[in-house]
């Protein structure tokens, strides 16, 4: 039984190392794609194969659907809770892209108060990096359609709600020469920022395996030396 337990711990340790290696590979892929020339706006994917364009830089022209802005709650930056503002940007062909415009800290006195900056009604150009849809957090129930503050955002359901077809990706707006100064914090999420945690977990599993084997051998030695 002890050997089985030790083998399981070793297997879990290698599993954590595999996860760390996968995230390192993803980090390298993100850096490689970000270094590519900007993606032409006309080449923006409209199919589920859009993952091949994730983390590419692009500048999109369109108009904001400001009244459809959604604030995603419980998004942390530097350990502080806040909101990520997501607004549809309608393109020339009538489709739209969910733009993660930036992060706002939560109001300590009223968590439902959001000081969202105003958006222009005229056509704009938005520069940033393409990304998967906003990440999903654990939720006890579904968000009400039309709610300004939500825990998660499903692009398919949101597309039906706003009556505009959404591309199967999002655009993380980044600071640049044309980005307005509106108080939003703009940081491209790093999907592999917790590699060290997996290595720590792997070390713990290997330590558990070693301790189990040492205790097992110690018990056998003790029994062999015990007077009969």
UniProtKB/TrEMBL annotation:
Q: Which organism is it from?
A: Rubrivivax gelatinosus (strain NBRC 100245 / IL144)
Where is it located? Cell membrane; Membrane
Q: What name goes with this protein?
A: SURF1-like protein
Q: Which residues form the signal peptide?
A: none
**Top-level taxon of the source organism:** Bacteria
The family assignment reads: Belongs to the SURF1 family.
What Pfam families does the annotation carry?
SURF1
Q: Which UniProt keywords apply?
A: Cell membrane, Membrane, Transmembrane, Transmembrane helix
